[in-house]
């Protein structure tokens, strides 16, 4: 791990502007949830005199680079944090290693604690979560215990379990502030019981010694309990546990029921004591089996199982249901295409999470070359899997609508990641932080590549002023018109033949005005000479140049100009208190999960494309709108959540980079890969987009560059981006369906 550069190092002895920038940037990006902090050098008060900016221009101060020190618990986590700031690497919020228990907050420790701790003061038990437990589970679970108690009393021999069920009926009706203990039997009492001999527990006599310990399982009452009482109660507790777990906030209730079924109901009834806690009461000697104060905790959204977020764990069974239902019920006897399409689309979300965590785990435990290869290979696998399967199905059916939906999804991903993702992060982060700053130079690399992909040059108009050193369009550069991936579209507008489906003469004059509908530019005129001789070579040329530009961007940011990030990693623990890395997923385990998730992703994408046809043909909503919303943004939901979490911790640089990197990969990797795929498997996909896609993409990129040009933002600028995104969605919603659909 590189050597730490803390506050004790002092400011850099550069120019006066450097010292001024170090003084004014006193906003510390806090990655507290990650156990990491962004530190910037502090300077004495004398260094931040008001005359600094009077002597140096504002542009020079804006272009200064601040050294940022990241602290991490171990080398693996430090490598993951460093990868977050590298261009082309997937940004990952969650830990890939187990955090030291002593470093966790008390709130997080409570999430993972067992329900067997008696507190000095538990507070009031009358809470909304406890009342919700009573309404959802408590009343019928208590009633079930009463019925089982009656059955056990009727068997006579199961009377001890009947008394236990009667006590547990009151406990599970309202378990809060009560405790169940396993009471130790005194040795003197055991000796006395051993001399008494046979006696009936039903009549109140002492319990035979042979009933304790191993003899408990040989009693007749235990046999009656295991046959008549325990199965029904275990099933009920299992139902409560699963339901409460899926609700996430009620996970304490799930733990309560799970522990009752697995431990409590299998103990001898005479060894259990149910009582209400009192503040002045001295706890009895014995093991605490259950002690619960709250049935709900709003912080359980942070809960993780083996490093996997609880929501991703809960959605994993949905993938299995989708695959079984999709391939077993292929004739749609049980469910319709709409439900199968929705399930397949929702299943993509947890699979995207597992793919992202696997990539982050492998990259954090490997060298730079391996991490770069894994990110480049699997970084866009989620979207590409769906697009390719859709194009294959459209080619087999001879339906051009699938290609148009793919273009809409590509445009929707680009527009959403440029407007919605950073906009939401600015708004939500701005609620906690009045003004947030980010590294405009690192963001400028993505901006420049987006301009290369979407914008070109025009002889009129001037771009807005930008700080020197910004990686986007320099000051005074010509404004953008569609180029890059939209170059073939522009070419078709200039040289293509306009063909209209229906025209009407509005003036009743043969030489008058005509009103035409369903017009498009035909590239196949004269046996396709224009397309095959001019447009298609241009498409292949663009598809080769854009990935080459992406590689140049990688080389620029990761090799020759790494100083624009200026990230340094240090150990946040004191010497002698270092923690070794305990990774959640080893490299081989992460690789196996990555491959399995990719395979399941392919199957879910196949099911989604298989059942999307009825939705496209029968829906009254424009296919444009379906593509730019549902198909584009649902796979990106895990990335959006990551960006919001970074923004809440005042690390807006990573929030912005998440959206920018996805948008860059759409233009420079995904679209060229789809074009090159058509060489080996001919499809209806051509790199000619509708005017709506071109204008929406170009306007989004220009607006994004304008917002990002000063390296700082607030919730108002984020609101502007979000509002523009929803305005574009409204345009797509009311737009007519594309031709061929």
Automatic annotation (TrEMBL):
InterPro entries: CaH_exchang (IPR004713), NaCa_Exmemb (IPR004837), NCX_ion-bd_dom_sf (IPR044880), YccF (IPR005185). Signal peptide: none annotated. It is found in: Endomembrane system. GO terms for cellular component: endomembrane system; vacuolar membrane. It is a multi-pass membrane protein. GO terms for molecular function: calcium:proton antiporter activity. Residues 128-178 form the Inner membrane component domain. Its main location: membrane. Keywords: Antiport, Calcium, Calcium transport, Ion transport, Membrane, Phosphoprotein, Transmembrane, Transmembrane helix, Transport. It holds the Pfam family YccF. The chain crosses the membrane at residues 131-154, 308-328, 334-356, 368-389, 409-431, 443-462, 538-558, 590-609, 621-641, 662-681, 687-708, 715-735. It comes from the Eukaryota. GO terms for biological process: intracellular calcium ion homeostasis. Residues 341-453, 590-732 form the Sodium/calcium exchanger membrane region domain. This is VNX1 protein.
């Amino acid at each position: 791990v590189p050597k730490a550069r803390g506050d004790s190092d002092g400011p850099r002895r550069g120019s006066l502007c450097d010292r001024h920038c170090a003084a004014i940037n006193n906003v510390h990006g806090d990655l507290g949830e990650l156990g990491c902090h962004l530190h910037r050098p502090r300077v004495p008060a004398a260094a931040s005199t008001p005359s600094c900016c009077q002597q140096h221009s504002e542009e020079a101060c804006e272009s200064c680079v601040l050294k940022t020190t990241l602290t991490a618990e171990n080398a693996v986590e430090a490598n993951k944090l460093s990868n977050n700031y590298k261009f082309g690497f997937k940004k990952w919020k969650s830990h890939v290693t187990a955090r030291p228990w002593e470093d966790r907050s008390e709130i997080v420790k409570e999430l993972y604690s067992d329900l067997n701790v008696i507190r000095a003061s538990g507070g009031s038990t009358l809470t909304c979560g406890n009342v919700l437990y009573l309404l959802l589970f408590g009343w019928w679970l208590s009633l079930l215990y009463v019925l089982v108690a009656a059955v056990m009393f009727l068997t006579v021999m199961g009377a001890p379990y009947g008394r236990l069920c009667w006590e547990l009926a009151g406990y599970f009706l309202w378990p809060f502030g009560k405790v169940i203990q396993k009471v130790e039997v005194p040795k003197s009492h055991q000796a006395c019981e051993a001399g008494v001999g046979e006696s009936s527990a039903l009549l109140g006599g002492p319990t035979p010694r042979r009933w304790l310990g191993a003899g408990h399982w040989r009693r007749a009452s235990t046999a009656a309990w295991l046959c008549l009482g325990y199965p029904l109660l275990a099933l009920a507790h299992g139902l409560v546990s699963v339901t409460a777990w899926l609700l996430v906030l009620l996970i304490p209730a799930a733990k309560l029921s799970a522990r009752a079924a697995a431990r409590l109901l299998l103990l001898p009834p005479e060894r259990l004591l149910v009582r209400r806690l009192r503040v002045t009461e001295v706890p009895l000697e014995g093991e605490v089996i259950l002690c619960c104060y709250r049935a709900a905790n709003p912080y359980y959204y942070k809960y993780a199982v083996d490093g996997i977020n609880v929501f991703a764990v809960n959605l994993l069974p949905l993938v299995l249901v989708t695959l079984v239902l999709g391939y077993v019920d292929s004739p749609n006897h049980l469910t319709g295409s709409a439900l199968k399409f929705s399930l397949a689309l929702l299943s993509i979300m947890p699979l995207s999470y597992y793919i992202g965590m696997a990539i982050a785990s492998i990259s954090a435990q490997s060298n730079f070359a391996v991490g770069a290869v894994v990110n480049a290979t699997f970084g866009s696998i989620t979207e590409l899997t769906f697009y390719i399967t859709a194009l294959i199905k459209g080619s087999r059916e001879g339906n051009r609508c699938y290609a148009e939906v793919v273009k809409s999804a590509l445009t929707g991903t680009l527009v959403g990641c440029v407007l919605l993702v950073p906009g939401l992060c600015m708004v939500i982060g701005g609620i906690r932080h009045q003004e947030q700053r980010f590294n405009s130079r690192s963001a400028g690399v993505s901006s420049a590549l987006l301009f290369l992909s979407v914008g070109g040059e025009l002889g009129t108009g001037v771009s807005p002023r930008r700080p020197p050193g910004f990686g986007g369009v320099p000051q005074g550069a010509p404004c953008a018109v569609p180029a890059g991936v939209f170059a073939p579209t522009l070419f078709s507008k200039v040289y293509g033949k306009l063909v209209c489906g229906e025209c009407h003469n509005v003036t009743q004059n043969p030489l008058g005005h005509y009103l035409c509908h369903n017009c498009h530019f035909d590239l196949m005129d004269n046996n396709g000479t224009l397309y095959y001789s001019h447009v298609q070579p241009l498409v292949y040329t663009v598809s080769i140049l854009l990935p080459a530009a992406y590689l140049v961007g990688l080389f620029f940011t990761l090799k020759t100009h790494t100083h624009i990030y200026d990230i340094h990693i240090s150990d946040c623990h004191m010497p002698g208190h270092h923690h070794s890395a305990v990774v959640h997923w080893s490299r081989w385990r992460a690789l196996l999960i990555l491959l399995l998730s990719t395979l399941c992703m392919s199957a879910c994408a196949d099911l989604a494309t298989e059942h999307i046809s009825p939705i496209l043909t029968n829906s009254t909503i424009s296919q444009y709108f379906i593509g730019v919303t549902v198909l584009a943004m649902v796979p990106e939901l895990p990335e959006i959540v990551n960006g919001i979490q970074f923004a809440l911790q005042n690390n807006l640089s990573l929030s912005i980079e998440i959206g920018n990197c996805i948008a860059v990969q759409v233009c420079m990797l995904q679209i060229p890969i789809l074009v090159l795929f058509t060489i080996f498997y001919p499809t209806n996909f051509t790199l000619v987009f509708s005017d709506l896609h071109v204008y929406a993409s170009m306007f989004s990129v220009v607006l994004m560059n304008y917002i990002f040009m000063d390296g700082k933002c607030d919730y108002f600028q984020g609101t502007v981006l979000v509002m523009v995104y929803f305005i574009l969605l409204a345009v797509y919603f009311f737009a007519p369906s594309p031709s061929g659909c």
